[in-house]
Amino acid sequence: MLETQRLIINELNPGDAAFVLELLNDSAFIQHIGDRNVRTLEQALAYLGEKVIPSYKRYGFGMYAVRLKEGGATVGMCGLVKRESLVDIDIGYGFLAAARGHGYALESALAIKLWAVETLGMERLVAIVSPDNQPSVTLLEKLGMRFESMIRLVEGDEDICLYAWNAATQVVVGTDS
Question: Which pLDDT does position 176 carry in this prediction?
Fold first, then answer.
């Protein structure tokens, strides 16, 4: 689907279940994104089949696998999410511990943002982030997103930061795709 200098970004499929199981049980993923209660390979397959893959057909986008060009390893997910509790489309990402700190999240998020704007015609994107997740806050700011407000997605949850990017007020940062 998308290619950057170091990455291939394409649809997740049932063959990615082991990767999804590992990512969703990563302690940082659980802390900053949430516990999806996926503990077995069968649950990971169900998660893909019920939550991830249907989004491609329903919305024309979703969360995508981020794979290294060199070696083909799947190191993370990055993409667009339509949340019932948000008006705007949310850009999100999550990476395995070994892949953090190499710039893959920024590289893939820039490619997804550019694709969302240039191909899908989106004029506004948002992102949600835990206030204590400084690496993600920094990444969102590098994407040209700015803090907009504190929100609560679900009653009873903690407040999280809503960051936003608007085409009318900001410039799209290009990639090496």
Answer: 44
Given CA atoms 106, 112, 118, 124 in this order, what sign does their dihedral have? negative
| Rounded CA separation 141/147 (Å) | 8
pLDDT for 74-103, tens place per residue?
999 999 999 999 999 999 999 999 999 999
Contact of 131 with 158, CB cutoff 8 Å: no
Tell me the HSE value of 144 on the side-chain side, using a 13 A CA sphere.
17
pLDDT digits (tens, 9 = 90+) for 1-43: 899 999 999 999 999 999 999 999 999 999 999 999 999 999 9
**6: which residues sit within 8 A by CB, 6+ positions away?**
68, 69, 70, 104, 107
